Structures are given as structure tokens and as C-alpha cells.
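## Example pair
The file below holds two records. Each record gives the amino-acid sequence first, followed by its C-alpha cell line.
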Amino acid sequence: DVQLVESGGGSVQAGGSLRLSCVASGFTFSTYSMGWLRQAPGKEREAVALIFDNGDTRYADSVKGRFTISRDNGKKTLYLQMNNLAPDDTAMYYCAASQWPIQLHSLDVVGQWGQGTQVTVSS
């Protein structure tokens, strides 16, 4: 059974940085596409980043140039480095896994999610 545990969220001032982690178990991590989703009250669910099994990446326009997704297959861990954070980045962030390569915008409906970690960015 797929298990995903996120950590690293917290409160930070605008312009600051955070690094989120997602520890995976219950599946062959190295063969899966992995990504990050976020959800804030009053906003649409948004897939922000995706990394394929070969290491290729995709980003939403809203985070491109500020966020970096990476993976450590030996540790079965997914990361999201978030720099130059802004209040609009405030959301619950979820790690997601997909057995097959997918498009970034499909991650929310085909992937399995973790429990999430809260990111709050103040002005």
C-alpha cells in the first residue's frame, strides 16, 4: 500500500525559503513519477511540480524559477525547495505518486496523496 509522509512546512515571511520532504514507502519509488500539489481555501487545487522516474521535471508557471523538485531514490524521499516565497504560496502542500508518466495537470486526479504539510507565508 502506498504511504507518503510530508514534512518541512511552517511559517515564513515573504521572500523566505522552505524545503519540504516526502518519505515514501509501500511501492517501488524509483519507477514512479512523483509530484507536489497544493490547496488553499478559496483557490483551485494546483499541481505545482512533477519529476519523472528519469529525473525530468515540470513546473506550474506560478512557481517556475522559484521552486525546485528533486528526488533521492536511495532514501525514497521527494523534496521541494521553495525560494522567494510569497503570500499566494500559502497552502497545504501534498506529495503525490503516479505509477505511470503523466502530465502535470493530471497529478491531482490520478496520483495518490499524502496527508499534507502546511505552508504559511506572511507579508
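Second record, same layout:
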Amino acid sequence: QVQLVESGGGLVQAGGSLRLSCTASGRPFSNYAMGWFRQAPGKVREFVAVISGSGGSTSYADSMKSRFTISRGNAKSTLYLQMNRLKPEGTDVYYCAQAYGSRVQIASVEYLYWGQGTQVTVSS
């Protein structure tokens, strides 16, 4: 049984930073790409960032490329998302997800397992 558990969300002022974590269990962590997505109520889930199984390749949504950093600690089976210079429009539930394979994937349909999400609220 695969489990993904996010943590690190919260309330932050615009311009501030947060670091999200996602701890995985149930499958060999380094075999699978891991991604972050976000979703506001009534909106489509949006791609944020992805990292390959080895950690050697990453991809970001254009609007977040200069402010967010995705990383992973395979020894700890943990995924991270460092978010800097946060904006109010970044207020969403953030989800981590584990892909079918090890390569970077942007489409949500390429992900097999999802966490329960963590709320990030950015005040103006």
C-alpha cells in the first residue's frame, strides 16, 4: 500500500517562504518520478514541478520556475518543495504525487498515487 503524506503548509505573508515535504512509503522511492501539483476550489489541478527518480532531471511550471525548487532525499523517501517569494495567487491545496515511472512527467494522468494535500495560504 503506497502512502504519500504531505506536510509544511500553512499561512504566510506575500513575499515569504514555505518548504513542503512529502514522505512516501510502499514502493522503492528512487524508482519513481515525484511531482507537486496544486488546486484551488472549483479549478483544475495545476502542475507545479516534477523531479525524476534519480533526482537528475526537473521541470517546473513557467510561472514558478524562478521561485520554487523541487528536490528529493531518496535515502529518506522524502520529496521537498521550497517555495520563495510567494504570491497571494499561490493560495491552494498542494499535492504530491508519484508517477508510473522514473521519468519526469507533467500531466496529472501520468501519476498513479496522490497524497491528501496540504493547504498553503498566502496573505496579501
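Notes on the second record: The mean pLDDT is 97. The chain is about 0% helix and 50% strand.
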